[in-house]
Design brief:
By secondary structure, the chain is α/β, with parallel strands linked by helices. The longest helix is centred in the middle third of the chain and has 28 residues.
Length: 342
């Protein structure tokens, strides 16, 4: 399942706002429309957003090629992309990488669009390879017959293919470990219900959907052996930003003695940010809380809070699964070494 790919000179995205009832592929040739797709969550998930942004920079180069203000236009395009969503670091990582590629191409007298398109293809291919490697590394943490809880969607739909948290589950299933999954519904946009359950069911992996506030009771009854989630940003000390509600799940897991694993590529690590206290948390429209599928679910005139993410402290994280292997505490010692490994 590939939610983002380039074909027929256009960027293709699965419209994730319509899943699971409709599978629609949208086509993009204007980077501005791609910005809108990121904001409105046609595409979502930190790695998938990064891949998408890489292609969007290439689209901008194709549009502005030959213009006397090419450099200024490209800077504006990169700034526009950075301004779409503030929390997921992969977005900034991909745009920074494309800016470096653009500078190198112009210095060498190469065609900017050709160079940026090739770099975007490389970002996409690397994401798929990283997810496969994460899956292999993380599968070793699961045992035959384990039942895993996951929150939000960190599957193929959140990446270029295969997934981070769900990639670990897929790899364990491919190894014959007979894993089953509890999926939190993940309010307010129900990514667990609409996307995670959709992916797992489509793959034939046993999945049971629960409401977010059932997780602790499932743990208390001994129905959950491990928790695996994805991440939108990981800091040097191992603090993890992920979909709102992840922090609560980590507290419940710790209370019940259940391992809490985070699966994310090294592109999700912010090596320059020391702790989660510095992470900018995206605030989304209140209508996402007060309405669902166009139906009003709360009284008019009341106040709403709609933080899209929260931060799980490193003390609650049993291990971080990356494409370079599994990291254990103390993360402040091990995470910086990944940057030195290139």
């Amino acid at each position: 399942m590939r939610p983002v790919y380039f074909e027929d000179e256009a960027l293709k995205l699965i419209d994730q706002t319509l899943l699971p009832t409709r599978e629609v592929i949208r086509s993009y040739t204007d980077y501005r429309d791609v910005c809108d797709a990121i904001v409105t969550m046609v595409v979502r998930g930190a790695p998938a957003i990064g891949v998408t942004a890489g292609y969007a920079v290439a689209l901008a180069a194709r549009e502005f090629a030959g213009r006397p203000d090419f450099a200024e236009r490209m800077q504006q395009a990169c700034d526009d992309l950075r301004g779409t969503r503030p929390t997921a670091v992969n977005l900034f990582w991909a745009v920074d990488r494309q800016e470096a590629c653009l500078k190198a191409a112009l210095t060498a007298g190469q065609d900017a669009y050709v160079a940026l398109r090739a770099e975007a293809d490389a970002i996409c291919a690397e994401d798929i390879a990283m997810c496969r490697a994460m899956g292999r590394a993380g599968a070793a943490l699961l045992h035959l017959g384990d039942t895993v809880l996951t929150h939000c969607n960190a599957g193929a739909l959140a990446t270029a293919d295969y997934g981070t948290a769900l990639g670990v589950i897929r790899a364990a299933c491919e190894a014959g470990k007979q894993i089953s999954v509890y999926a939190d519904e993940t309010r307010p946009l129900l990514q667990g219900a609409r996307l995670t359950a959709y992916e797992l069911h489509k793959d034939g992996i046993p999945v049971t959907l629960i409401t977010d506030n059932m997780a602790g009771w499932m743990m208390r009854q001994g129905k959950i052996d491990a928790v695996i989630v994805g991440a939108d940003r990981i800091t040097r000390n191992g603090d993890v930003a992920n979909k709102i509600g992840t922090y609560s799940v980590s507290v419940l897991a710790r209370e019940n003695g259940i391992p809490f694993y985070v699966a994310a590529p090294t592109s999700t690590i912010d090596f320059e940010m020391m702790t989660g206290d510095d992470i900018v948390i995206e605030e989304r429209e209140p209508n996402e809380v007060g309405h669902f599928a166009g139906v009003q679910t709360a009284p008019e005139g009341i106040r709403f809070e709609n933080s899209a993410f929260d931060v799980t402290p490193h003390q609650n994280v049993s291990a971080i699964i990356t494409e370079k292997g599994v990291l254990y505490p103390p993360y402040i010692q091990h995470i910086p070494k990944l940057k030195n490994e290139g």
